[in-house]
Design brief:
Length: 398
């Protein structure tokens, strides 16, 4: 058979991350590559009790198809949870439950843009967002960042030049808090500025916030959606880092006229999200277990973050730089000298450590001297040893 593959596949490349996940099982290899939560944070006992109870008492509902937008109890409980944790108000009519926020990202490209349209992201940005946008044949313009997040003055001039060239961006996508991959958090000033730009140029703003609750240091910076004028912001959330990623549950908060369009697309994608997961999440919030578990996750991850940052200070005294995140799951390491971290992956694996090269997160094929390091998955000793092996790979000791 001579298969004629679709045009949407043109920009889609096999993800370095998927390749790395395969190697994660190599004996002795320390993987700082994946973006996985630590299995020690999975609330197994609580989930077992919730699941047993649901099966015993509500099997007729929990194993049935759900409405496309979501199970009503779950839709109803999310606004209160978000008001408590994120400080913004919404109603159940503003919510759609998805199979992970990853599905929400894909839906965005279908709902707010046409193939070939230009959108704006951070540079670097989340590799899964790059895949979702590529799968919709969108053109990404990445805006550079520093440790206060996306540079919004650069954003402003890019918006102006894009509009002048007749390619007004269809939306702006940002991960303002503990960004994946850099760990950077956008300052309040820039949050206000990006919101002002979105409103004044009439370009929808998408705030993706999977890590917001995992803060280890410093004061909370309010989500953009909670700021004055933030009602039109589309907000993506997930249970992956506060419950488990395997239950595949995320949500998008949007104005009702946008939710109705997501509804149409989701009917075509999968009819509805996993009903059982939605009931589990509902009970997990209702019982208050989510708040207790997040507090435990923070304790564990703060220690791991410190171990990684301290190990980098010990091992990389050669002018390399790295982010010192106040939360989330990642450190962004930029190696001194003229190195290409993608080309060095094989050498690193020979030395028993894996990472994801900066290029995987770039909209332009840049970020060659950088890499993303995950500090949540490995055990404490592996994190230290992993950084030692990295320094052996990158620093030529005499
Ligand atoms: C920034 C960002 N958005 C979305 C996702 C997707 O998460 P999920 O589909 O598990 O909700 C991730 C996962 O790592 C992420 O880092």
């Amino acid at each position: 058979m001579n298969y004629k593959f679709s045009y949407f596949l043109n920009e889609m490349k096999p993800s370095e991350i998927r390749e790395l996940l395969k190697m994660a099982s190599t004996p002795g290899l320390i993987s700082l590559g994946g973006g996985m939560p630590n299995p020690g944070t999975f609330p197994s006992a609580v989930l077992k009790q919730i699941m047993d109870n649901l099966i015993e008492t509500r099997s007729a509902q929990v194993f049935q198809y759900a409405n496309t937008l979501g199970v009503q109890e779950t839709l109803d409980i999310i606004p209160g949870y978000l008001e408590k944790t994120q400080g913004f108000k919404c109603t159940p009519q503003n919510v759609i439950l998805n199979s992970g926020s990853q599905q929400g990202l894909y839906e965005l490209g279908k709902v707010l843009a046409d193939p070939g349209d230009t959108i704006i992201t951070e540079e670097p940005t989340y590799v899964g967002a790059i895949s979702a946008f590529n799968a919709n044949a969108l053109k990404m313009v990445g805006i550079e960042m520093d440790d206060e997040g996306m540079k919004t003055d650069v954003l402003e001039s890019r918006i102006k030049s894009l509009i002048k060239a007749g390619t007004k961006p269809s939306f702006i996508y940002t991960i303002p808090t503990f960004q994946n991959p850099t760990g950077f958090t956008m300052s309040l000033e820039r949050r206000k500025h990006i919101l002002e730009l979105s409103n004044s140029y009439d370009i929808p703003l998408i705030e993706d916030n999977p890590y917001g609750e995992l803060r280890y240091y410093g004061n909370k910076v309010p989500p953009i959606k909670s700021l004055k004028g933030g009602d039109g912001v589309l907000y993506l959330g997930t249970f992956s880092k506060v419950m488990t990623p395997g239950l595949r549950l995320g949500y998008t908060i949007a104005p009702t006229e946008v939710i109705s369009k997501f509804n149409l697309i989701k009917q075509a994608l999968d009819l509805a999200t996993n009903t059982f997961s939605q009931y589990v999440a509902y009970e997990y919030i209702k019982q208050g277990s989510i708040y207790k578990q997040v507090a435990l996750n923070i304790e564990m991850y703060r220690k791991k973050r410190d171990i990684m940052v301290n190990a980098l200070e010990e091992e990389f005294r050669d002018g390399s730089t790295w982010s010192k995140p106040d939360g989330g799951m990642f450190v962004w390491l930029t190696v001194a000298g003229n190195v290409d971290t993608k080309q060095m992956v094989g050498e690193a694996i020979k030395n028993g450590v894996a990472y994801i090269s900066g290029q995987a997160f770039s909209t332009t094929g840049g970020q060659k001297r950088s890499m993303r390091l995950n500090f949540t998955y490995g055990d404490d000793e592996q994190l230290k040893e992993g950084i030692r092996r990295l320094s052996k790979t990158f620093i030529k000791k005499n």
